[in-house]
Amino acid sequence: MSGLKQELGLVQGVGLLSTSLLGTGVFAVPALAAQIADSGSLWAWPVLIILVFPIAIAFAALGRHFPNAGGAAHFVSLAFGPHMARVTGWLFLSVIPVGLPAALQIASGFWQAAFGLEHSGLLLVQLGTLLAILLLGMRSAGSSANVQVIIAGLIVAMVAAIWWKGGITPGSIQWPALSTLSASPMFSALAVMFWCFVGLEAFAHLAAEFRNPERDFPRALLIGMLVAGGVYWSCTAAVLAFHSYGGEMAASASLPSIVVQLFGQHALWVACIIGYLACFASLNIYTQSFARLVWSQTYEQKPKAWVAQLSRSRSPLNALSLVLLCCLISSLAADYFSLELDELIVYANGIFVFIYLLCMLSGCRLLKGSSRVMSFIGTALCVLLLVMIGWKTLYAIVMFALLWLILPRRKQASGEAVG
């Protein structure tokens, strides 16, 4: 699909994906994993990376061979036809009413922790966040990528500062013996930690904007995943070293409390600002991905429609405006009805795994060789995750069924398998 500006390089791609994967999780999940599995969480991160690796390989192969702003919906279209693609696209968009308001709540929470903002102030922060994303979206994807490379650098610098000031070294870390690990806590920790690697499907929408997608997209995806995994493991090691988890302490307060302990109370606002920026980066890539999906779906059917028009910088600004408007309405509704954060997140989680499953099934049909083998393994892992999530996938299943029945059917298209 033509139109979008192809300017992303390898470093920009790594910055986009790593910040997408880190997002809100880098401040909360290491403490949650330590609380569940204690020092066994040091082993859980390498295990999780190994488990996610087949899914990442399949996504990398699909993005390499079929770069398109439609992302997951495009892959599904080639494998199973346009009707399933439209269902997949709208299923991904159904995250907006629940997932984005949750992320905005988490992001504004860092401002509350740092500056003690009240309810009205937090709403202004959420509105300002959406406005900043809109302003950034007026430019091409390269501008977002450059910003997120800086944010990724700040996150890494904060973790490195904690290790340096806290005297943590690789030799000082005490790995528990594998024979002492219990399966149940490890599985529970892995189930929580998996959400740190939700973001691959959003990154797929940017494949068409790489200067050399066949070379740089798969490299950026795999390197970004490893960078994020390394940061998560380093945060877990710090949380364990300072015993900053469990009890009455909120998981998201774990790293800021370590920063205060090492650098003083005045450093709290620094940690909170970095936490907010991490949330902003995750929100930015998701809204930009949603916009590209809306644009691509509209462009294929009605190329002259308002939503299908690009800005002067060749970015889908009109589609982004529509997505942000929906996010604003959803956030105001969530605030009005006093919906709890966990209630919002629980509905979004099942959708992501469901979309992963559809992409892996597409890879089984479209890819050949080792990439196809990875797709089969990824399919099995996604099914296992859906079983582990249980009733929490009900929102995704109901939305999928409704979309399948409601959306109109069009002539089927097919894709050719590639190696």
Which SSEs are present, and which pair or pack?
Blueprint: H1 10-22, H2 25-37, H3 41-65, H4 72-80, H5 82-93, H6 96-115, H7 119-137, H8 141-166, H9 183-193, H10 200-203, H11 213-241, H12 254-263, H13 268-301, H14 317-336, H15 341-366, H16 369-389, H17 394-406
Helix pairs in contact: 1-8, 1-11, 1-13, 2-9, 2-11, 3-9, 3-11, 3-15, 3-16, 4-5, 4-15, 5-13, 5-17, 6-7, 6-13, 6-14, 6-15, 7-14, 8-11, 8-13, 13-14, 15-16, 15-17
Describe the protein.
- Helices cover 73% and strands 0% of the residues.
- It is mainly α.
- The longest helix is centred in the last third of the chain and has 34 residues, at 268-301.
- The model has no long low-confidence stretch (mean pLDDT 86).
Sketch the major β-sheet. Answer: none
Overall form? globular
- Name the poorly predicted regions: none
Query: Helix coverage percent of residues?
Result: over 70%
Average predicted local confidence, pLDDT:
86
Q: Tell me the distance between the termini.
A: 21 Å
E-strand count: 0
Order of helices and strands: HHHHHHHHHHHHHHHHH
Proportion in β-strands: under 5%
Rg of Cα set: 21 Å
Helix count from the secondary structure assignment: 17
